[in-house]
Amino acid sequence: MKCNTRVAKRTCLFVMTCTFVLAIASVPNALCYPPAGSDYMERTTATIELQIYGPSGFYEKITATGPTTVSRSDPYDPGDGRIMIDTEIVLMNLVGNSFYVGPITVIESSSKASTGAIKQQAAGVDFPADSFFDVFIEIKSGLPFPLGTLHNDDPKNMTAVIYRIPPLGSTYERPEIIYLKDELENIVGAMLATRHKVEAPVGGIAIPVDKLGLLAPYVGLASTTLAVTVAAAVYVKRVKRKKEKQ
Amino acid sequence: MKAKGKSGGTKAQIRALKEHERRISLVVTVILLTVILLVSGFLIHSILFSSSEEENLPQPTLQFKPVNSKSELKAAIVDHLSLTFPNETFVQAAANILTQVNYTVDYFSGEKVTVNFYKSLPESGYKLIIFRVHSGLAPDRNTIFMFTSEPYSKTGYVGEQLNDQVNAVTYDIHASERPLYFAVLPKFIKECAKGRFNDTVIILMGCRGLETESLASTLIEKGAKVYIGWNGSVSASHTDTATTCLLHHLITEKQTIKQAVENTMKETGPDPNYESMLTYYPTET
To answer: CA torsion, points B148, B154, B156, B160, in degrees to nearest 10?
Structure first.
């Protein structure tokens, strides 16, 4: 009798485990902010309205393209219930061409950190989210010293509403004027309206489906049902045999 | 002697009774086993091979009415990209072009684009369907898939997964945490979609829609008149610009498919990042 109780308990435990595994497997993937990490965005496009002062100055809208990498902190609650992520541009290498100065390269500042953040617009709702960066850049060109590398000391604040992380398809922009300095720290020009778009294809990739894995829970369920039925039948038979002996 | 005979008769009766009971219990056990097996078989079959969700086309998120309200022309904008690359300007521009020539435009936002949505789309009688959806090429380098907004689950659409009608897909290729979704494959359109398209013009705005003819030919077999798509990857902004231009040529200026596609490519050019071109199937259209 004791043996039968043990078998029944074990069977019950097995059935409960199977049910639990099935329940876990049926929970869909949750959408939420990812943990700390970095996002490499292969194709980003910056459009910079550049104004250079002086007698040989010029105004030009320059487009430069290339990769940008952003590092992210773990999501946290700053106190208002709207989850936030600290971000920083750790790499930017955009290449373009100027009608006046030839090829140019726009890189993230080597001396100042371009930090920013992502924050939920409404508590508990991940997207759309507000995102910004205070950007410090260096514009390198073939111009002679001290104009070869221009930089900004005041951050260029760029904002966007984003719908995913990484913010593919979003455009960071701000029209405010930020002065540009040469290598001798003289103001020689300014960045006017600036846009930085994270290009993204409207495609995706297929993930191979493990067909055996798909069937496993059902095979397990069928086997369990069969095992329980056979065990029950054997148990009934044994009980009957015992009664007959008595 | 008499008593012995009586006792022997009683024993025989008891034995017969026990035999009868044993037979009954055997029959009951067999019936019980059969019932349990049938019920579990039915349960497993129903889980594996049927989708319990609503199979009718959902109500559109928005409906744009035509100038002439008596017109029966219907168009659909299936805007799965509204979840990741929303562009209200595009939707408004496309709807304006279509309503001007008396199309009633049903707009389906991203969350409505489920597996069952694709199932019931052909029989809905649309003359023009604009799929503003993520799409891509499966690892077999032949099968084109279209995204849904349904998060992928191993327990969802198991029968369809086993039959290569739906698959798990992701668009965040570079993200560390890739959310997975269900996508429908041409085999799903062929075998599961209800009814037929109504000489429908289908525009697929996503990537690689015409890198192979797998999806195009399936849709044509299913009653579509022509299928227009990109022969490679395309960025969201470029596909929006080009499709607006295409609709202008095709609908407002009533150009042929060939003229409209060629003029669109002349005006917008190939995608600046991926160099893909808009093209159409069948080419003799």
So the answer is: 80
